[in-house]
Amino acid sequence: MPPDGDALPNPFAGELFLTLAAEGRLVLDPVSADETIAGLERTLSLIRARLRVIRIWEQSPTQRVDELPEELAQDVIDAVFADQLAPGKLEQAAAELPKYIEALRRACRYAQPGE
Amino acid sequence: MEQVRVALQASDPLSQAGLASYLQSRPELTLLRSADRAEAKVLVVSCDRLTTEVVATLRRSAAEVGAPVVLITNEINESELLTAVECRVVAILPRVAVTADRLVHSVLAAAAGGGVMPPNLVGELLKHIERLQRDVLAPNGLNASRLTPREVDVLRLMADGLDTNEIAGELCYSERTVKNVIYGVTHRLKLRNRSHAVAYALRTGMI
């Protein structure tokens, strides 16, 4: 495999993961699954926070970073410029990451004995 | 022991013949004729690249036969990997590394696994999840970690409109140090001048 990071038109594959898990083709041990799910939940939480920041920023009448409290300015810059660099990706991620989480939960269930 | 029925499809006659000889040399396997491929327990597909045509064939096979696929190909990128997995590929062998033993091992593992992905392929999918999260939070790989704290300090003051002398005074550095820091940033990030450095840093959320 070449290094990661190819520019993909749609980099998300939530539906594929759900299918793989539903068909029992994706099976994960509980430890790996829990670790990955925890990471995804943290990322999802950050994404939702950034989306909230962007919505508040968009409704701000002046939209001047230097008028924001210093501790807030960096969050606004992170969120707004990340969205400018990859427009729509945060919304897409907010819709797709829960599918990955659900798929990994299902994939983990297959690996547990007695089920 | 029951023989594993294998169907083979290669993109060129030479590969077809070579891989067929590998598969036919083992008593654990039965190589099916093309017409009998629907009875296969494992499909072996060989191609240079995962072209649209190959993907269409794989999709058709996945729908009609539903057997796990051992894919022999050259480099495969992340997008192609996901497509391959979607088409029931459970093992990917680089063309240059294919030996009779490796191929037979992969075919037998695919038959035994019944379509469940082996750990190495699951590992690749987990890498996809990691990369995805990284890309969403830091698009284009840009984040403040590419700048040192000293560089961030200098760029912030440049963004505030201070000249070299004023930045040096503010940060208690010599003018030469400030110039070196600015040169280092513009050179490393291939930026044209100070304004470009400030604009770049602001645009990417570095400062």
From TrEMBL, chain A:
Q: Which top-level group of life is the source organism from?
A: Bacteria
Name used for this protein in its record: Uncharacterized protein
What species does this protein belong to? Pseudosporangium ferrugineum
TrEMBL record, chain B:
User: Does Transmembrane show up as a keyword for this record?
Assistant: no
Q: Does the keyword DNA-binding apply?
A: yes
Where do the HTH luxR-type domain residues begin and end? 140-205
| PANTHER family named among the record's database cross-references | DNA-BINDING TRANSCRIPTIONAL ACTIVATOR DEVR_DOSR (PTHR44688)
Q: In the record, what lineage is assigned to the organism producing the protein?
A: Bacteria, Bacillati, Actinomycetota, Actinomycetes, Micromonosporales
Return the protein name: DNA-binding NarL/FixJ family response regulator
Q: Which domain of life is it from?
A: Bacteria
Q: Which GO terms describe its biological process?
A: regulation of DNA-templated transcription
Q: Name one GO molecular function term.
A: DNA binding
